[in-house]
Design brief:
The complex is a heterodimer of chains A (525) and B (185). Chain A is an all-alpha fold. Chain A contains 18 helices and no strands. Chain A has one domain: Cytochrome C Oxidase, Chain A. Chain B is of the alpha+beta class and 185 residues long. In chain B, the strands form 2 sheets. In chain B, strands 1, 3, 5, 7, 9 and 10 form a 6-stranded mixed β-sheet that branches. Classes of the chains: A mainly alpha (525), B alpha+beta (185).
Chain lengths: 525, 185
């Protein structure tokens, strides 16, 4: 509660050193913690990806044994989704939502501290699970029964980690919704909110709707494992397919939980560097909402091969294709924002345009996969791997990079090195495509995913993909260097480094943003 | 209402929503069972209805009988005949034999599956040991019939149909009969 008493600067009352970070309730501190945690997990998950790609560099088994390979694919997925991408966007939300909507802080600062500090124990559980007898969960990030009912104690640790991560997400979402609905500055009505705030409002509702369902699914797995229930056990009257239904009821909205905040960041960056207001703001809000609603109706398109009646397959196929309509509206609006704009191509804009190109490609391969007969051919092949890395990496991750470069001057008061930023973009862009574009061909030719070995005809493309992966990984170490260099010795940022950016944090707050902002709400005309 | 009160009111609603969605996850289980019942999907333990008993003698199919035991259930399980030639529409009986090789009484449940997948919906079982749990005393041998008809609507390009059963142990049914302690499942 010190923060309340410290009127002007607040620094003097704070514990220093590590305790400042452990006890902090300041949204900016917590945002920073989320972002560093996310980057750390990104590195851990990245090392796992490189272990996978090393094994796949050549056919045959060279580097790891198949069981460890399976643990790597599982943990890579879980850590990247729950440890890297989601916390990154919660970090942005913590930093930006109060500043962009004119609120002094998040609505529940102490709960905010909790939501963050639940994450490191969950991450530790996942990492410790590698060292218990039997190793980590090795059933893929989707944790399908019946395999997960049979795995060793690493699976129990994974289940508890998912429970903790879910609690953290739900608490974070409650905070975000309450902040947005109750703490906006006077005059900031809903349809004046920056699109980043809108996208997070929608995402937070999605999280509250589906994270508890995932918690339920893993709880059922836990009781099947230890307490004699038969949710997924055929002999006891259960059904493993039931797990897939429950999981994907969570899993498909989860995809949009990752993508929608990324849309929000891009919707701030593109207008700023086009020096034009966002084209079709209202349609953006409605398109995002429709994507969120439709995401609850398409889950079984992940399960075309389980033996559904053809009518159900048709329903899920058409519903999935329908999502392309609001997504198309968004892509159209971003392009129309750039149309006749006065464009410049600083690093944030480069990443936003990279996002636009590659996310659209990922969307198209998704449309291909939505067609049932095609999906039955491509299910569980590298085509699917290529598809979701185009939307997760080139979509979510690229937009996170755009956001970091865009807001770093506001957060730290220092500019990053523009030349190095451009290098980072081009290296990332090129190596990303080297890694993942060829995986489309592997999948079309029938190479299955999650297998440590492959037939000889896949050797060339796999070698190219592995080389790309190492290049991509090294480029991200370079990103760390760029950010550290900016924080330590970057040039001092001007008050408004991007003259086209016109949201509250740029127009009403000094650079760098003070520790406490908007203690008296700004008046929005 | 002050902002703090408004915040707390919203907090309560959102927590309630999260709890409801946790319950919803579990509610999907009976909901899913109901859907399967209504649509006739996955009804493994009920006899199928047979509408057309016209025998199509112009067509001969090979039906293979496969049998498996799941995990470490100590049972021997096999069909008395490995394969049979049948006509679509013909009423066929086949006998499976199962023997409990342990000194513990226990129950198992057989789950059928079909190959190719498309054949499943044309394979009509009128009677099957898989409609109920089978309990076997130590060393007991049971001969169990399956009575079935293959629907003449089976696609023309299918010439061989495999009926495969897997016996799963029903947990918690092991009872030691000769003084041996019950083994952990």
């Amino acid at each position: 509660m010190e923060a309340v008493h410290a009127h002007e600067h607040g620094h003097e009352h704070h514990p220093s050193g590590i305790m400042r970070w452990v006890t902090t309730t300041n949204h900016k501190d917590i945002g920073t913690l989320y972002l560093w945690f996310s980057f750390t997990m990104f590195m851990v998950g990245g090392v796992m990806a490189l272990i996978i790609r090393s094994e796949l560099f050549q056919p045959g088994l060279q580097v790891v044994n198949p069981d460890f390979f399976n643990q790597m694919t599982t943990l890579h997925g879980l850590i990247m989704v729950f440890g890297a991408i989601m916390p990154a966007f919660v970090g942005f939300a913590n930093w930006q939502i109060p500043m962009m909507s004119g609120a002094p802080d998040m609505a529940f600062p102490r709960m905010n501290n909790w939501s963050f500090w639940l994450l490191p124990p969950a991450a530790l559980l996942l990492i410790i699970s590698l060292f218990v007898p039997g190793g980590a969960a090795a059933a893929g990030w989707t944790l399908y029964a019946p395999l997960t009912v049979q795995l060793g104690m690493g699976m129990d640790l994974t289940i508890f980690a998912v429970h903790i991560l879910g609690m953290s997400s739900i608490m974070g979402s409650i905070n975000i919704i309450t902040t947005i609905l109750n703490l906006r500055a006077p005059g900031m009505n809903m349809m004046k909110m920056p699109l980043f705030v809108w996208t997070w409002l929608i995402t937070a509702y999605l999280l509250i709707a589906v994270m508890p369902v995932l918690a339920g699914a893993v709880t059922m797995t836990l009781t099947d494992r230890h307490f004699g229930t038969h949710f997924f056990n055929a002999a006891g009257g259960g059904d493993p397919v039931l797990f897939q239904h429950i999981f994907w009821f969570f899993g498909h909205p989860e995809v949009y939980i990752i993508a929608i905040p990324a849309f929000g960041v891009v919707s701030q960056v593109i207008p700023a560097f086009s020096r034009k207001p966002l084209f079709g703001y209202t349609s953006m809000v409605y398109a995002t909402s429709s994507i969120a609603i439709l995401s609850f109706l398409v889950w079984a398109h992940h399960m075309y091969t389980v033996g559904m009646p053809v009518q159900a397959q048709l329903f899920y196929m058409y519903a999935t294709m329908l999502i392309a309509v609001p997504t198309g509206v968004k892509v159209f609006n971003w392009v129309a924002t750039m149309w006749k704009g006065s464009l410049t191509f600083e690093t944030p804009m480069l990443f936003a345009i990279g996002f636009l190109f590659l996310f659209t490609m990922g969307g198209f391969s998704g449309l291909v996969l939505s067609i049932t007969p095609v999906d039955i051919q491509l299910h569980d092949t590298y085509y699917v791997v290529a598809h979701f890395h185009y939307v997760m990496v080139a979509g979510a991750l690229f937009s996170a990079f755009a956001g970091v470069y865009f807001w770093l001057p506001k957060w730290t008061g220092r500019m990053y090195d523009e030349t190095l930023g451009k290098w980072h973009f081009w290296l990332t862009m090129i190596f990303f495509n080297v890694t993942f574009f060829v995986q489309h061909f592997l999948g079309l030719a029938g190479m299955p995913r999650r297998i440590p070995d492959y037939a000889l005809q896949f050797a060339d493309f796999n070698m190219i993909s592995s080389i790309g992966a190492f290049g991509f990984g090294l480029s991200q170490v370079f990103f760390l260097y760029i950010v550290l260099k900016a924080i330590r010795s970057g040039e001092k940022s001007p008050e408004r480094p991007w003259e086209g950016a016109d949201t509250l944090e740029w127009t009403m707050l000094p650079t760098p943003a003070p520790y406490h902002s908007f203690e008296t709400p700004p008046v929005i005309k | 209402m002050s902002t703090a009160e408004a915040n707390r009111a919203l907090l309560r609603k959102l927590v309630l929503a999260a709890i409801c969605m946790f319950g919803f996850g579990f509610a999907l289980v009976p909901f899913y069972d109901k859907i399967c019942e209504v649509t006739g999907l996955n009804q493994l333990q009920k006899p199928d209805r047979v509408s057309n008993t016209q025998v199509d003698t112009t067509r001969t199919l090979t039906v293979e009988f496969d049998s498996n035991v799941h995990g470490n259930l100590p049972w021997k399980f096999a069909a008395q005949e490995r394969r049979m030639s049948v006509h679509p529409g013909q009423l066929v009986q086949v006998v499976y034999e199962v023997r409990n090789d342990s000194n513990t009484a226990m129950a198992g449940q057989a789950i059928p599956s079909y190959g190719p997948k498309v054949a499943g919906q044309y394979f009509r079982k009128l009677d099957c040991f898989c409609f109920a749990k089978q309990e076997l005393k130590p060393g007991e041998v049971k001969r169990m019939p399956v009575v079935f008809v293959i629907d003449p609507g089976l696609p023309q390009d299918v010439h061989t149909v495999t009926l495969s059963y897997t016996f799963f142990e029903v947990e918690g049914t092991r009872r030691a009969e000769t003084g041996a302690a019950p083994k952990e499942g």
